[in-house]
């Protein structure tokens, strides 16, 4: 896959291709930007271009080296991801052990650390030494959507490659051309920062079901139907949707924001556009202050989840607040 197949990110692509063209590839890079904006795909493509035997500043996709990367079995490419909640020191030690052997080709070895900001302190310190003195020629690519969490010493030893969110209209057009229904596409685009993130979300079987459930609950809360709290917990946790309450609260946040968009005549910004008729009939049933307060409830509930609060209790408290 060549660089032009990466959507957007023109600055990042230019920096990387210039380095390849001028033979000035750094020993370590930090790909930083919002999750889902194409960092991992770009990192893999950059590694492919480093190994490629046909092109100097891109990946041909046809040579043996390119095909090995595409099939995930290139001996000189190592991908590291969090083991559970974090990247542990043993993973970095394994990486160092792999890199103590010489490269099979003439190019440097490449390692990609996805979620680099989730390294433990011990892992980060171990990586720092590896960054300074790799045992063999190496190119490291650290990927992070929260680079400020990385040790300043690691940041200073890497070349920063910035990634930015793609424009929503661009993503909507791309997803629509892939046959994704507009209501689902608008929701996914509003919850992620890039096409990769959108596609990943849309591929989940529960995503459309969660959207339908949020609409059902949102409408019931307006009619002050107390039955919703009694039944929602059972439905959510029996079907497995309870594992994705963070998305549920984010969707509720969008729903309340849509009510404000309608009140302020910003119809083009409405996410649940297929519900415009319902929104137009009910947006004035609450004041601007109430809709803003509801958005606050959704944000507070998301924060509780991140603090490991009881998920079912968190949801019930949120719904009760809406109906009070």
Automatic annotation (TrEMBL):
Transmembrane segments: none annotated. One of its GO terms (biological process) is DNA-templated DNA replication. It comes from Paenibacillus donghaensis. It holds the Pfam family DNA_pol3_delta2. GO terms for molecular function: 3'-5' exonuclease activity; DNA-directed DNA polymerase activity. This is DNA polymerase III subunit delta. InterPro entries: DNA_pol_HolB, DNA_Rep/Repair_Clamp_Loader, P-loop_NTPase. It comes from the Bacteria. SUPFAM superfamilies: P-loop containing nucleoside triphosphate hydrolases (SSF52540).
């Amino acid at each position: 896959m060549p660089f032009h197949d990466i959507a957007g990110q023109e600055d990042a692509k230019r920096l990387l291709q210039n380095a390849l063209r001028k033979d000035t590839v750094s020993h370590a890079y930090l790909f930083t930007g919002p999750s889902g904006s194409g960092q991992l795909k770009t990192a893999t493509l950059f590694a492919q271009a480093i190994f490629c035997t046909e092109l100097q500043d891109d990946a041909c996709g046809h040579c043996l080296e390119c095909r090995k990367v595409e099939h995930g079995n290139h001996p000189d490419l190592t991908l590291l991801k969090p083991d559970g909640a974090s990247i542990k020191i043993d993973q970095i030690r394994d990486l160092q052990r792999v890199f103590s052997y010489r490269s099979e080709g003439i190019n440097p070895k490449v390692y990609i650390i996805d979620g680099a900001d989730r390294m433990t302190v011990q892992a980060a310190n171990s990586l720092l030494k590896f960054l300074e003195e790799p045992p063999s020629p190496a190119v490291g690519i650290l990927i992070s959507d929260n680079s400020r969490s990385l040790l300043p010493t690691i940041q200073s030893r890497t070349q920063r490659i910035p990634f930015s969110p793609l424009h929503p209209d661009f993503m909507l057009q791309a997803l629509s051309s892939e046959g994704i229904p507009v209501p689902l596409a608008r929701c996914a685009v509003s919850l992620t920062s890039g096409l990769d993130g959108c596609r990943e979300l849309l591929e989940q079987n529960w995503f459309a079901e969660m959207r339908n459930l949020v609409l059902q609950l949102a409408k019931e809360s307006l009619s002050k139907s107390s039955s919703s709290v009694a039944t929602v917990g059972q439905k959510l946790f029996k079907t497995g949707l309870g594992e994705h309450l963070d998305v549920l609260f984010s969707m509720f946040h969008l729903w309340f924001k849509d009510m404000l968009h309608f009140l302020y005549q910003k119809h083009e910004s409405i996410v649940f556009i297929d519900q415009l008729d319902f929104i137009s009939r009910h947006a004035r049933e609450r004041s601007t202050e109430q809709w803003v307060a509801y958005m606050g409830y959704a944000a507070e509930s998301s924060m509780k989840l991140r603090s490991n609060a009881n998920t079912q209790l968190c949801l019930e408290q949120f719904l009760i607040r809406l109906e009070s």
